[in-house]
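quick one before i forget lol
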Amino acid sequence: MAGFWMKNLCKYLGKLTWLKSISLNFTSCVRVKDEDLNNLVECFKKLVSDKEISLNLNSCSGITDKGLFVLSGLCMKKVPLQSLILDFESCQNVSDVGLDNLQGGLRRIPSLKKLSLSFSQSKKISDSGVISLVEAIKRLPSLKVLDLNFDW
């Protein structure tokens, strides 16, 4: 039953409504797939209000461009996030398409004050993908802190 563990995690996280910050580290977890991110996004939508989300998917081989599209759903309903930290270091199945998916959602978080994105060692990302992402970031009126890592 794929994703059952993530559904359970989200079920319990959903009860922690008083949290100001949520940090999940799935570094090198082969069980994390794009589909699992659907559960996380739905959970975050219920929990988030002026909070910080940190999601480390470093070296998760099951994360692809589709996963970044799923994460952009976190932004689609104008969730009032203050800080978003996403780490996709060494996610070899993420490309410019994924950056384009993500940037579409980022534009919908006008409350965002801090943004940190890491795509270090993600070899399918090119200059055009980075430019597309930066164009979206330029449209974030409240952004005060920006950390981008594209160490190829």
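fyi The longest strand covers residues 21-25.
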